Amino acid sequence: MPLRRNTLISAVLGAALTAAVMLLGTSIPSAADKATSTSSDRGAENLGRPNYGVCRGLDSGCYHDWGNFDPAADGYRVLVYSRTAGPRHAHIGPVLPPGLNPPLTPAHAAQNAIVKLGTEHNFAVDWTEDVTQLSSPSRLFRYNAVIFMSTTRDALDDPAQTALRQYIRGGGGFVGIHNAFGTEYNWEWYEGLLGGANYYDHGRNQPGTVTTTSRRDASTAGLPTRWDFADEWYNLVPFPSEVRILAKVDESTLPEGATGGSGHPGHGRNHPVSWCQYYDGGRSWVTTMGHAVEAWTDTPMTGDQYFLDHVLGGIESAMGRTSFCR
Asked: What span is annotated as the signal peptide, if there is one (predicted)?
């Protein structure tokens, strides 16, 4: 009789707990969930984050193939956007005047590099720092992908924010490079576009070894498993979630370690530098790498060709020219 009574009590308590969970809209984590949530060296980096209220992740069902692009008729075209409202990286050169495709100088290393990639691989490239060029979805739907090249802080006004969101929802492609992570800090939807991640700090620019974690993706298929490169190695808060990590930096190879200027200890054995996801109808491919001017020019730098091949693959997959996020 006591055993039966204990079983009955356990059943009642279990039912009550389940009802409470359903009422609160949460779930009881399984053993697998717990293993996943504690897999990072630094602890609960994926806990307590917003869900961004959109379809996102690795399910291609999150993509909206609504016929807004016709590469057979229009070819492929990207827009490089490098507006800054805060610190400005040397690789994007001096501030550009208003309008579309203003004259570039040799100092505009990153923009010139993307133009060169387009010439070599048969896609057109426009560039601007004029926010009015992003003021409507119809403008943006001219492009198979929009590239945020080390933009900073509030780089978009309200019409441009709305247009970018509608463009992504209509199946647009987004490529975020380096300080695209230091942009629109207070816009939650944009944080989700970055993979549910954001820049927190970094240590000094230093050499390190990049580990290619997925060799199936268009942006990594030709890369070695390990390759040397130098960068600022961004630390992230929040930490990316529901994305495919494409490359990481091996923190054990950083001469000065991964601790950032604001005290972030780094991410241990799980320090991502590039990833991809479907997001709110569109495609998003991002990398925190790309700090050094030499990475974008013909000046020799260890690993620079691997980096440019990586970026090229990311652009082509975000455009829909090659398979995405595999």
From this structure: 1-31
